[in-house]
Amino acid sequence: MALSEQEAQKASPLTDRFGRRHTYLRISVTDRCNLRCQYCMPAEGIQWIERKDLLSFEEIERVVRVLAGAGVSKVRITGGEPTVRRGIENLIGSIAKIDGIKELAMTTNGTTLRKMAQAYRDAGLTHINVSIDSFKPERFKEITRTDKIDTVLEGIECAVNAGFESVKINVVAMKGINDDELVDFVDFAKVRPINVRFIEFMPFDGNEWSKDRMFTYREMLAVVNQKHEIEPIERRPSQVAKDFKIVGGLGTVSFVTSMTEDFCSDCNRIRLTATGEFKPCLFMLPIVSVRDRMRNGCDDSQVLDAVQESLGQKWKGHPGAENLIKLKNASMIQIGG
Ligand code: SAM
Ligand code: SF4
Predict the structure, then answer these.
(1) pLDDT digits (tens, 9 = 90+) for 211-239
(2) pTM for the whole structure
(3) Rounded CA separation 108/317 (Å)
(4) How many CB atoms lie within 10 A of CB 260?
(5) CA of 81 to the centre of ligand 2 (A)
(6) C-alpha 78: how far from its chain's center?
(7) What's the confidence (pLDDT) of residue 3?
(8) CA-144 nearest atom, ligand 2
(9) What is the topology classification, in CATH, of domain 22-335?
(10) Which residue from 6, 44, 284, 332 could staple onto 40, CB 3.0 to 4.6 Å apart?
(11) pLDDT over 80 (residue 324)
């Protein structure tokens, strides 16, 4: 049964009407990127955000400090491509020092890791996700509209050697695009201490999503099972992926089933956009701008109010894929993945 807003906030400042406690903040630090992935941004590009409209590192740090005081213990830095924002290692360093932050993760396309993986780790980044959707140079080029595959592959090896608590590889699985490479990715994880995550293709503005291109969890599982022996790992609360051990291997394989088996019922995530708006769900429009409040001199309790107002409107769950495409939303690159 849904809680009243007052009952929810009494349970914990970041509990919503449906009793879900929010302990995980995902921060987009930029909408810019040095790749142009088809599934993430439209071919014609997007209207870039002006520099002055982005949250500064000091503003981001303040939001994290306030939310850490209200129970957030995990932060993910994402974008756009977070590593194209100059000095990102300084933001990593300052968030890592905030009391209460136990896990600091980043999702990146891997293009800076060859040079920077160790610096990010040393600054306090604990977990890293690197996105790559194909091992085939021509296909990588088609998907990302760039030819940086070697840089990304080297970057992954540098991340594996940098001593992170976990290295995960994100693969958006799409029929007719990279569906024949699933077993290659599992082979890759078999000989490295990494987690490969196959993500169901999600619809966003301008990304040419169609039901026919969506490779579902069940279909992917059947393909992987043909070649590999994998065993399910018990799900932890609020976990978005279905995890499997690769029998006889070093790594693990996971499926992020947002489209066919959602994980809304115990979702613990809240998002902060690059322009400082709280988004209670990936698929909901931004609700409250904390940037404007901070720039108008608000105090920390009003920062907390902003996130509570946003969570107050969080829906119970997102609609299925075919209804999602009818909703207004931005491109993934603008929202922050
Ligand atoms: N630039 C970084 C990267 O590529 O990892 C971080 C931002 S990106 C938007 C975050 C994640 O969202 C990536 O793993 C990307 O593959 C994933 N993603 C983007 N568009 C998607 C879509 N339409 N469906 C599923 N995953 C998507
Ligand atoms: Fe850039 Fe990441 Fe989007 Fe690709 S998925 S265009 S790397 S933000």
Answers:
(1) 899 999 999 999 999 999 999 999 888 88
(2) 0.95
(3) 27
(4) 14
(5) 6
(6) 6
(7) 56
(8) 4
(9) TIM Barrel (3.20.20)
(10) 332
(11) no
